[in-house]
Amino acid sequence: MSRWTAALVGIVGVAAALAAGHLVAALVGPSASPFLAVGNTFIDFTPSPLKDFAVRAFGTYDKLVLLIGMALVLLGLAVAAGLLSRRTPTPGTVLAAVLGVVGVAAVLYRPDLGQLGVLAPLAAGAVGIGVFRWLHREALAERRVEGRRSFLIAAGASVVAGLGGQFLGSRTDVEGSRAAVGKLEAAVKAPAVPAGADFARDGTPSFITPNRDFYRIDTALSVPRLRAEDWALRVHGLVDRELTLDYADLRGRDLVERTITMTCVSNEVGGPYVSTATFIGVPLHQVLREAGVRAGADQLFSTSADGWTAGTPVDVVLDPDRGALIALGMNGEPLPVEHGFPARLVVPGLYGYVSATKWVVDLELTTFAAKRAYWLERGWAERAPIRTMSRIDSPKGLSRTGGRVTVAGVAWAQPTGVAKVEVRVDGGPWRVAELSADAGDDTWRMWRLPLDLKPGGHTVESRATDKSGFTQPQARVAPVPDGATGWHSLFFTVE
Ligand SMILES: Nc1nc2c(c(=O)[nH]1)N[C@H]1C(S)=C(S)[C@@H](COP(=O)(O)O)O[C@H]1N2
Ligand SMILES: [Mo]
Fold first, then answer.
1. Is the Cβ–Cβ distance between 448 and 204 less than 8 Å?
2. Are 3 and 75 in contact (CB under 8 A)?
3. Which of 158, 180, 348, 393 pairs with 488 at a CA distance of 20 to 30 A?
4. Cis bond leading into 313, ω under 30°?
5. What is the pTM of this model?
């Protein structure tokens, strides 16, 4: 058969396999879809330096880049398998079988899938082999498949099965469930954000980050879709009484509101992975006291619906003054699906990877010696308090401005609070910047300093001092293993 025909047979065979897997996955668990399962497993096995590079280079688009990359690799394999199979269907058959086995391995490795999940890659392998061999036979007999009924049926059925799987898999009505939750009323309201808590007009972010702008970091290729009605949280391990709490139980308690700035450990100096929201939920220490934490437990090991895990020091989450929450809502609405609906943890002062489990379903009281959480296996530190940090938001690096320019930015030092931010230009003396109204120690604080500069190039640097008197150090340290340090510095030109 012609090269073109051979390549087409390969492509339609692989497409049929993926579509069949996607459709069966919709029935046994959407993340069993071979494409997603392989992608998710790939994420888990990616060496840390590559993962850190992907986050740096592509930011929140890292997963889109991965999906597109995987699609291109598959397309390449499909074309290659087709071309190798111009005489006999064996090479293509072997490729389909290998892809099926890879899919099965990926599904078995996923912690969030039951044994039934393997049905999806098995169906993918079987359908892929069947369709490939069928089209191959037709192509050998007719010298071509394009335009033949078998080819049109296979291609059309793949599209229908793929779309059907997508529709069925996303039919879990999460948005309906979120809407049904309605307004979460606080028994203890967060203090109102004071007037003048940001310098947004000078280029800082708004004090509260709207939900759609809140930074997002997680390992989930497809966001877990849980309904509040089906959700439950198990508390167990070194406790006097195991608890299983459902959504109605939690929301029926006296809900507490707290405004908290969250930060990601992989944020570079000057980076964007920091945002602030008013969260509402149940104080974590209350639930843990109810379960009765036994002596010897030093780690709260939390697990999400997709199997991701975090380990948080028990003394931190038991401290009522720290204010850790099982959060149900943020900024006046139930948690958005990407931010952990129906429930997540939020612990002021700790980086997200050791505290902020989204889609949380399991809390185990244990020890750091006994269990290691997701990112620890990948080179990040066991304990990770947030580092005192400042960032310059305006002017932008490499921009051109007039001589009268206000330098402005944000600083954070949860849970200690920001006491001072200093700015210097061209290595000159440090000058104290004006701080925005103090909204509490668990949130960021904005700063600004008007300058009058001569034309030419200038370098501006900032450093924060927290309320314990600790000043952000100059030494540049990379985010791995427990958060970046160093002064943010940028260059701009006065015209
Ligand atoms: N289930 C789950 N929860 C998770 C993560 C994850 O990958 N999976 N990432 C953590 C990290 S590294 C951070 S910084 C915060 C980010 O929360 P956000 O996406 O709501 O900003 O979530 C944490 N919770
Ligand atoms: Mo993070």
1. yes
2. no
3. 348
4. no
5. 0.88
Domain range summary for the chain, segments of one domain joined by +: 3-169, 180-378, 389-494
Assigned superfamily of 180-378: Oxidoreductase, molybdopterin-binding domain (3.90.420.10)
Nearest CA to ligand 1 atom 13: 352
Print the SS3 string covering 284-344: HHHHHHHHCECCCCCEEEEEECCCCEEEEEHHHHHCCCCCCEEEEEECCEECCHHHCCCCE
∠ CA 471-378-61, nearest 5°, is 80
Q: Average model confidence (pLDDT) for the chain?
A: 93
| Pocket lining: 493 vs ligand 1, CB cutoff 6 Å | no
Residue with tokens 């997701």: 374
**What per-residue confidence (pLDDT) applies to 56?**
79
Look at residue 53 in the predicted model and tell me its pLDDT. 83
CATH number of 389-494: 2.60.40.650
Q: Is residue 366 within 8 Å of 297, Cβ to Cβ?
A: yes
DSSP string over 18-40: HHHHHHHHHHH-GGGSHHHHHHH
**pLDDT of amino acid 63:** 83
> Is the CB of 458 inside a 6 Å radius of any atom of ligand 1?
no
Q: Quote the CA–CA distance of 309 and 222 in Å, as a whole number.
A: 17
- Give distance in angstroms: CA of 369 to centre of ligand 1: 23
CA nearest neighbour of 388 among 419, 355, 409, 423? 419
Ligand 1 pocket test: pick from 335, 354, 358 the residue with the most ligand atoms within 8 Å of its Cβ.
Answer: 358
Can you read off the two tokens belonging to residue 182? 């309605």
Distance CA 120, CA 263 (A): 37
Query: Residue 391: what pLDDT?
Result: 98
Cβ of 127 closer than 6 Å to ligand 1, yes or no, is no
pLDDT band, very low/low/confident/very high, at 114 (cuts 50, 70, 90)? confident
Inform me whether the pLDDT recorded for 117 exceeds 90: no
Question: 180-378 and 389-494 share one CATH topology?
Answer: no
Token pair for 482:
């427990």
143: pLDDT strictly greater than 90? no
* Pocket of ligand 1 contains residue 214 by CB under 6 Å: yes
